[in-house]
Amino acid sequence: MTPPRERKAPAPSRERIVAGAADMISRRGLSATSIREMAKHAKAPLGSTYHYFPEGKQQLATEAVRYTGEWVSRRLRKELEAGPVEGLRAFLSLWRKIVVDSDFHAGCPVLAVAIEEPQTDEIPPPLEAAAEVFTEWENLLATSLRTHGTPPAQAAQLATLVLAAVEGTVALCRARRTIQPLDDTAHQLEELIANAVRNP
Predict the structure, then answer these.
(1) Which residue from 55, 96, 167, 176 lies 20 to 30 Å from 88 (Cα-Cα)?
(2) How many whole angstroms separate alpha carbon 188 and alpha carbon 94?
(3) Spatial distance between the Cα atoms of 151 and 172, rounded to a whole number of angstroms
(4) What is the C-alpha to C-alpha distance for residues 38 and 46, in angstroms, rounded to an integer?
(5) Helix axis angle, 152-176 relative to 125-147, nearest 10°?
(6) Which of these, 38, 39, 37, 59, lies nearest to 47 by C-alpha position?
(7) How confident is the model at residue 3 (pLDDT cuts 50, 70, 90)?
(8) pTM of the prediction?
(9) Distance between CA atoms of 58 and 149, rounded to whole angstroms?
């Protein structure tokens, strides 16, 4: 009698590894996180991780930033169809959930990559990806504001303010271990946007 064959565990998907890397970076930053730790966090063998990302940590981090960017952009596009205030609420809701569900340990992986000093004079791919993601989020917000009557220059400036305020407030919430800064920022930003739409 032959012993039963052991079932092989399914190989971790590329997306699962990328999502795990994004979560790890959101908690510890990029410099403090090795590709081995990213793989472990995603419950993926190191070999599988290098199979999908042969260029190593920088490639995986770049994909993690883009993954986060696309995930947020999809939600923003959907909610902005109802207007800029609804889009803002959705944007805030995403980060509120991440901060609260992680007990204030996780923030935005895009910001985490953006604030780290590059090790060389060349701009690393993850930082380039972070700049592209921030630009995409700003453009989505600005387009919605323009569509609802805000002059183009004001719409662009207000979109930048929203992005900077929300990203900075997420950091405040993590430092203070309270969600109150996000609630306060939400109230003020909603008023600014409502006034910009009402009084273009």
Answers:
(1) 176
(2) 18
(3) 31
(4) 9
(5) 120
(6) 39
(7) very low
(8) 0.88
(9) 41
